[in-house]
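Async update (no meeting this week)

Hi team, since we skipped the sync, here's where things stand on the single-chain job. The sequence we agreed to prioritize is pasted below, unchanged from the tracker. I ran it this morning and attached the output directly underneath so nobody has to dig for it. Comments welcome in thread, and please keep replies under the output.
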Amino acid sequence: MRMSFKLIIEGFADGAEIPSRFTCDGNDISPPLRWSGEPSETKGFALIMDDRDAPGGTFNHWLIWDIPAYIHSFPEGNEHASLGKSGPNDFRRRGYGGPCPPKGGGPHRYFFRLFALDTPTLGLSPGAKRSAVDKALRKHALAETEYIGRYERS
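Output:
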């Protein structure tokens, strides 16, 4: 029996509040991730974290691709995910940028999406923009799994 593709974030339940240590109000470090159940033909992974409730539209917080197929976890504080390539987030830097919604703007949802890919590389240079990664993912994604966290600044 094949397992379903699943992403787990240690430290908070799917759909629950993101602890402040993973946000701009805390240490702004990335949470520990682990995954399993990808399709057998998977040759690599890509990860996107974004906020779809941002006032100006979707806000990109973390963008990593060309993660080797043998990797199945990132430890806490692995902002740059050295075993892959990273692109700029909407804070205009590479790596993880934790939740930091406007104060008093209500709760925001943060989507962590992991893609299983049919190729070990998307053919993009480090620093590629989100639009280029999205385009490559449309061609190479075999499966996708999602985990959601919530955060509100008061």
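Quick observations from my side:
The radius of gyration is 15 Å.
The chain has a mean pLDDT of 94.
Reply here if anything looks off.
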